[in-house]
Amino acid sequence: MNHSVVTTFPLTETVGQALEVSLRGADELLPQQEWVQKLARSQATGQPLRIKLGLDPTAPDIHIGHTVVLNKMRQLQDLGHQVIFLIGDFTSLIGDPSGRNSTRPPLTPEQIKVNAETYYRQASLVLDPARTEIRYNSEWSEPLGASGMIALAAKYTVARMMERDDFHKRFTSGQSISVHEFLYPLMQGYDSVALKSDLELGGTDQKFNLLMGRHLQQEYGQEPQCILTMPLLEGLDGVEKMSKSKNNYIGISEPANTMFAKVLSISDTLMWRWYTLLSFRSLAEIARLKAEVEGGRNPKDAKVMLAKEITTRFHSAAAADAAEQDFANRSKGGVPDDIPEVQLAGAPLGIGALLKQANLAPSSSEANRLIDGGGVRVDGGVVSDRGLKLAAGSYVVQVGKRRFARVVLA
């Protein structure tokens, strides 16, 4: 019952460009030939393709690593296709076993609802909300009921399920796998049937689940979707994938100044990878910029452009300009605009006690260590004497490159 795409539509230049956009930064596009034909048919008939991204609202906050697939959605949305932001409120009740070596605890419906709202609000900073269809998979999963679930489970074999990498590893190492975990890929695949999806996006760790959607669509007599996997973005360290637990991430709701400074902290090599996966500049533009840097232009110029683009997307152009200014002030040893003010009593006060009371050092001994290392400045001058006592007055105190306080001492 294979309803594969009939190859009758002309491959125009526009189709070639759409394929280039699809492949940009992608890990795999399967099967590429079918996708080309879907694009050609869409162009010939004027019928947009249906592009699905499913997200389980397991954590309320997203970092820029999560936006790699959202950026791809936006690129395809800008080509005129219909993107569907699918919130897995039903599948979250099961818990995705992808990459897990133990059963994941399911969330409560209340947690899911709160997380889903936050997720969508954050995703709208990348997608065009006016052209995004939002769906919840409880819409068709709940009515399926027990008999529907049994009929669905009959369409896949246990042997195929056990080919899945994490199931296979857990089974061979004697770790437990609950029966309900088999339902997760089945339900995610059924979403593609319900939405008549033409293309499903996901991270490389989702490949098994995405192929399940393709298999089930054929079982239900539909034309199967193509799948597009995107790589997992390396974090600030350039080594590990971006994650909160590794603390190498940029949260998309972080302040503009922090976001800007964090982008500038990445290596010159990693910057190009981020350009491909996170920037909305064309590949030709990025290639030109890279050639300029290779020809002697300061790589920092390119990094500042990237930092401004990302900060503008999640804040505003004005906030990005202000963040650039703030960063320049700090690197010149200048004082940023928005520094906290601390009122302290007890003048004359020793510098160690002042740093501790102003929350610029966790303890007096740590304050002394910072002074010995030349890391403390008062009104721009480096403090070298641990025994310094400050009289009543107002001082700008700086610890390291980034920590400032205006201390008013009485």
UniProtKB/TrEMBL annotation:
<keyword id="KW-0067">ATP-binding</keyword>
<keyword id="KW-0436">Ligase</keyword>
<dbReference type="GO" id="GO:0005524">
    <property type="term" value="F:ATP binding"/>
</dbReference>
<dbReference type="Pfam" id="PF01479">
    <property type="entry name" value="S4"/>
</dbReference>
<dbReference type="InterPro" id="IPR002305">
    <property type="entry name" value="aa-tRNA-synth_Ic"/>
</dbReference>
<dbReference type="GO" id="GO:0004831">
    <property type="term" value="F:tyrosine-tRNA ligase activity"/>
</dbReference>
<keyword id="KW-0030">Aminoacyl-tRNA synthetase</keyword>
<keyword id="KW-0694">RNA-binding</keyword>
<protein>
    <recommendedName>
        <fullName>Tyrosine--tRNA ligase</fullName>
        <ecNumber>6.1.1.1</ecNumber>
    </recommendedName>
</protein>
<dbReference type="GO" id="GO:0003723">
    <property type="term" value="F:RNA binding"/>
</dbReference>
<dbReference type="InterPro" id="IPR036986">
    <property type="entry name" value="S4_RNA-bd_sf"/>
</dbReference>
<keyword id="KW-0648">Protein biosynthesis</keyword>
<dbReference type="GO" id="GO:0006437">
    <property type="term" value="P:tyrosyl-tRNA aminoacylation"/>
</dbReference>
<comment type="similarity">
    <text>Belongs to the class-I aminoacyl-tRNA synthetase family. TyrS type 2 subfamily.</text>
</comment>
<comment type="function">
    <text>Catalyzes the attachment of tyrosine to tRNA(Tyr) in a two-step reaction: tyrosine is first activated by ATP to form Tyr-AMP and then transferred to the acceptor end of tRNA(Tyr).</text>
</comment>
<dbReference type="InterPro" id="IPR024108">
    <property type="entry name" value="Tyr-tRNA-ligase_bac_2"/>
</dbReference>
<dbReference type="Pfam" id="PF00579">
    <property type="entry name" value="tRNA-synt_1b"/>
</dbReference>
<dbReference type="InterPro" id="IPR002942">
    <property type="entry name" value="S4_RNA-bd"/>
</dbReference>
<dbReference type="InterPro" id="IPR024088">
    <property type="entry name" value="Tyr-tRNA-ligase_bac-type"/>
</dbReference>
<dbReference type="InterPro" id="IPR001412">
    <property type="entry name" value="aa-tRNA-synth_I_CS"/>
</dbReference>
<keyword id="KW-0963">Cytoplasm</keyword>
<feature type="short sequence motif" description="'HIGH' region">
    <location>
        <begin position="57"/>
        <end position="66"/>
    </location>
</feature>
<dbReference type="GO" id="GO:0005829">
    <property type="term" value="C:cytosol"/>
</dbReference>
<keyword id="KW-0547">Nucleotide-binding</keyword>
<feature type="domain" description="RNA-binding S4">
    <location>
        <begin position="349"/>
        <end position="410"/>
    </location>
</feature>
<comment type="subunit">
    <text>Homodimer.</text>
</comment>
<feature type="short sequence motif" description="'KMSKS' region">
    <location>
        <begin position="241"/>
        <end position="245"/>
    </location>
</feature>
<dbReference type="InterPro" id="IPR014729">
    <property type="entry name" value="Rossmann-like_a/b/a_fold"/>
</dbReference>
<feature type="binding site">
    <location>
        <position position="244"/>
    </location>
    <ligand>
        <name>ATP</name>
    </ligand>
</feature>
<dbReference type="InterPro" id="IPR002307">
    <property type="entry name" value="Tyr-tRNA-ligase"/>
</dbReference>
